[in-house]
Fold each of these.
Amino acid sequence: NAGVMQNPRHLVRRRGQEARLRCSPMKGHSHVYWYRQLPEEGLKFMVYLQKENIIDESGMPKERFSAEFPKEGPSILRIQQVVRGDSAAYFCASSPREGAAGTEAFFGQGTRLTVV
Amino acid sequence: RKEVEQDPGPFNVPEGATVAFNCTYSNSASQSFFWYRQDCRKEPKLLMSVYSSGNEDGRFTAQLNRASQYISLLIRDSKLSDSATYLCVVNPGGGYQKVTFGIGTKLQVIP
């Protein structure tokens, strides 16, 4: 049973380009959470999705960021027109049900985005 | 005041020492609490949940003080492999998981 898979592991983008980060949840998990971790900072919640639905995007910047979790395929976090301040590690976590607390949420290895 | 506060450290301790970290939270209605471990440039991994009565897992002991709104993690007989950042995580409750992570406390165990 594969864990949460994120790809790419490392992504380099020039300012103004688009970044697409993918997250495949664990088998049987239909709830996905995205977090951002800036250097020397804690993880910040960005968005919570279920299949085909965004449940809570209160942590997402208002512009340039979007997320989806289609019926088929991985969850995608999309950042348009990247800026240097977007450089960070982006982690996703999945859980099997709503309200699952830390014991049932598993993290992927993260995507490290570097904007040059 | 931050929702979850931790001393970022680093805490440098010799092998075999006992070390304790505290974490304070601001939302008195918070429902569940966890300690995660994060190795350098890796993903966070659940270390242990924190129960109201306190709980122990081998060399690790976690405690919750609701009155003072803090949780603690005690590590006995520190090993070199314990070197990592320890994240305090608080679930404020609600219908879904929207946990808040502390900045983490960095522990370096030295030989």
Amino acid sequence: AQKVTQAQTEISVVEKEDVTLDCVYETRDTTYYLFWYKQPPSGELVFLIRRNSFDEQNEISGRYSWNFQKSTSSFNFTITASQVVDSAVYFCALSESGYSTLTFGKGTMLLVSP
Amino acid sequence: NAGVTQTPKFQVLKTGQSMTLQCAQDMNHEYMSWYRQDPGMGLRLIHYSVGAGITDQGEVPNGYNVSRSTTEDFPLRLLSAAPSQTSVYFCASRLSRRSGANVLTFGAGSRLTVL
């Protein structure tokens, strides 16, 4: 069975600090996909990134970066120079190959204060 | 494109009442699903469908019914609402039923309160 653990329930930082959101996953499948979604205070769910299990390259998109490590079953998300607009709940999620559903972690609430 | 449309956005029910949350998508997606979001619990899968006429249970299916008579629509029915069903409900769809790689597109959510 697939499982996603986000151990950090809530993180508070001051603007311009760097922050890392942790995500640990469990799966028996060799082909799987990892996702991050953002849920701002307005409530919608916004897709941020997808990574497949065969691509361990780290990815950077502006102030966002993702570190995928199969050896530790982790897919961590770092925000550099955080901004107030980054305040949101962030969800890590996992799906396997084939007819698979998407399993979410419990989410990490990030509060960025000015 | 409207994407995934959920109605209503807000609903208050009394215990024992029934209601249907509507979900429609105009992207010709094969796969559709319903999640509920509760504080500290993340998003949990209620039911999903891999195509018209095919539905299956997710992690928390009790108290909910679904059907998929068309590709576009996937309503979620509460037959006898209970306070434990107070939650925010999200409908989501993806292009292919076979590929976990596809990105799920979410509706805006429906906030349900059961008194």
